[in-house]
Backbone:
């Protein structure tokens, strides 16, 4: 049995200013996406240039940050606690209290990329195929932030690597944040980076992201403790699994559509 190290969630404190590890993890995630994006642009062959130019990439990063933060917060409000925030609307803006949803952030990025594509006259699917491999390392950083905070821990387990988290009782639990770090972050990044390294039909990289993330998240939810205010929902599934199912189905449908379209051409 292991014990969570109980890391102070505040990384740096200067007077009244407190910089939290979770915020630093978000910064690291965006930094990784920025570096990978610049690398993809620089290494793209002349006959197959990247979907965006170096100048457009700066706009892409700005729009992505807005999409993640606004979408992630609104997604949490709407998907997880709509009744609570309807009664406490001003707390919607209290992001420092926690509460972000990947699925909301994902929708926020989709909208942000649609706006960017319209602004610069870029094909939206090409843009999304460019963005998809840049995302997983950011997801990995976010899950590491969850682990540092000792939040979103797993269900009780008797496995030897079970971990006791403060505020979760004395029973060892799955370190599910690390499972998600490995699956949604590292494994998904490796899969997408490899797949996108060669020419693929339009929208297939995006389809693989949907399918890969949805499947990894669905599997990880079996080890993750459901939110106390939601619990287990219909058919024994969690909210995370219900939100991941449409991603899996959309990924399969998009992959089939892309392959059919490529075959017709």
Residues:
């Amino acid at each position: 049995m292991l014990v969570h190290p109980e890391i102070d969630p505040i990384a740096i404190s200067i007077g009244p200013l407190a910089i939290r590890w979770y915020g630093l993890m978000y910064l690291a995630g965006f930094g990784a996406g920025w570096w990978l994006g610049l690398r993809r642009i620089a290494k793209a062959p002349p006959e197959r240039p990247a979907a965006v130019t170096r100048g457009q990439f700066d706009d892409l990063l700005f729009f992505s940050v807005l999409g993640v933060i606004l979408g992630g917060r609104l997604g949490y409000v709407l998907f997880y606690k709509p009744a609570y925030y309807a009664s406490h609307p001003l707390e919607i803006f209290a992001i420092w209290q926690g509460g972000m949803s990947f699925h909301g952030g994902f929708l926020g990025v989709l909208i942000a990329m649609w706006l960017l594509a319209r602004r610069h006259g870029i094909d939206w699917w090409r843009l999304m195929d460019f963005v998809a491999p840049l995302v997983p390392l950011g997801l990995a950083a976010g899950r590491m932030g969850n682990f540092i905070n000792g939040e979103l821990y797993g269900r009780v387990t008797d496995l030897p690597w079970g971990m006791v988290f403060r505020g979760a009782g004395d029973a060892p639990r799955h370190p599910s944040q690390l499972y998600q770090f490995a699956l949604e972050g590292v494994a998904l990044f490796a899969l997408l980076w490899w797949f996108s390294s060669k020419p693929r039909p339009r929208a297939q990289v995006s389809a693989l992201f949907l399918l890969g993330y949805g499947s990894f998240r669905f599997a990880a939810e079996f080890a993750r403790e459901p939110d106390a205010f939601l619990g287990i929902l219909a058919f024994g599934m969690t909210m995370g699994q219900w939100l991941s199912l449409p991603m899996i189905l959309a990924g399969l449908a998009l992959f089939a559509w892309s392959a059919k379209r490529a075959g017709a051409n």
